[in-house]
Specification:
With about 325 residues, the protein is α+β, with helices and mostly antiparallel strands. Helix content is about 30%, strand content about 25%. It contains eight helices and 17 strands. An eight-stranded mixed sheet has the order 4-3-5-6-7-8-9-10, sandwiched between helices. It has a five-stranded mixed sheet with strand order 12-11-13-17-15, sandwiched between helices. A two-stranded antiparallel sheet has the order 1-2. Strand 1 and strand 2 form a beta hairpin. The protein binds 2,6-di-O-phosphono-beta-D-fructofuranose. 2,6-di-O-phosphono-beta-D-fructofuranose binds next to helix 6. The site of 2,6-di-O-phosphono-beta-D-fructofuranose (FDP) has 13 residues, from helix 6.
Amino acid sequence: MTNTVTLTRFIIEQQREWPDASGTFTLLLNNIVTACKQIAHKVNRGQLIGVLGSAGSENVQGEVQKKLDIITHEIMVNQLIWTGHLAGMASEEIDDVITIPAHYPKGKYLVMFDPLDGSSNIDVNLAVGTIFSVLRCREGIEPTLDDFLAKGSEQVCAGFVIYGPSTMLVLTTGQGVNGFTLDQDIGEFMLTHPNMRIPEETSEFAINMSNQRFWEPPVQRYIEECVQGKEGVRGKDFNMRWVASFVADIYRILTRGGVFLYPIDNRDPKKPAKLRIMYEANPMAFIIEQAGGLCTTGCERILDIQPSGIHQRVPVILGSKNEVGRIIAYHQSA
Ligand code: FDP
C-alpha cells in the first residue's frame, strides 16, 4: 500500500471543511487514540506482563473488576486529564463524574468511556474493546451531572477500538463511519475501511439465548420466527452469533450486517436491561445509524432518550435496517 491515509490526516482533512474549527477536537482525538494504543499494547502482552485475571474488587455496578478494567481506566484518565481539551470525564469504572483538577486548564468537551468492554472475555483471549463518546460542553465551566446527561443525538463523535486479531478503530463524527487498522510497525491507525455501510437485509442474529425465558413477547416472537427458519413464516434460515463482547458483535454487524439484541427482561426487577446508555448504547447507536442501520429499545430510538444517570441501563436492539424495523413493528403491534 503506497497511498495510505493516516487517522491524523483523515481528521485534519475533515476539519478543513469547517473553517472555524480550532483544531482542539483533532488534538483530543489524538489523546484518546494514544490511550487506546497503550491499552492495545497491554491487552496484546497479556499474561507476559501479568495483567490478566481478577483484581479482587467490584465496580460501582457490583461487577467483579478485572485487573485490566482498572489498568485501562487509569490509562484513559491519565492520557486525557491534563490536556486542556476536556471539561470532565465519566467512566464505567467510577461512580461519579471525573472532574479536571484546578492545576490543569479546562476545555470544551466531555468524554465518556467504557475502557474495557467485554472484559469477561479477556482471560479467554477473545476480542475486547474501548468505547467512547464525546459531547460538547459550555467552555470554562465546572460541569455538573446535567451537562453529561445529554441525549445521544447531541454527541459530536463516537468510536470504539477493538483489540482483536488486528487492532481497529471505528469512528464517526456525524459524516458516516470509517474504520482504521493499527499498523503496529509504525504505530499509526491507517484508513482501511472507508464509509462503512450495514447491509439492510440480514439472516444473522445475536442474542444471549440463555435469557430466553425472561424476554417480553415481541422479542420471543422475533427469535422464535428466526429459529423456525425455512419452515416458519420467514421462509429462510437464520444463523446465530454471540461473542458476548459488544464491540466484537457490533464490528461484525458493521462489516456483514446482522441484528443484535440485549432486550429488556424480567430476570431481576432492579436491572431490567444490561447495557449502559452513556458509554455503550449511545456511542454504538450513533455509529450504527451513521452506517445506515437502526438502534432502538424496541419502543424508542436510543439517540432520543433523555438519560437520567451516568450508569443508566437501556435495552438495545440494533443493526440491519429492515430487520430492526420488523422488531419495532412487533413491539408496536404487541
Ligand atoms: P461484559 O459484561 O463482559 O463487559 O457491557 C457488558 C458486556 O460484556 C458486553 O460487552 C456484552 O455484549 C454483554 O455484556 C455480554 O452479556 P452476557 O454476559 O449476558 O452474555
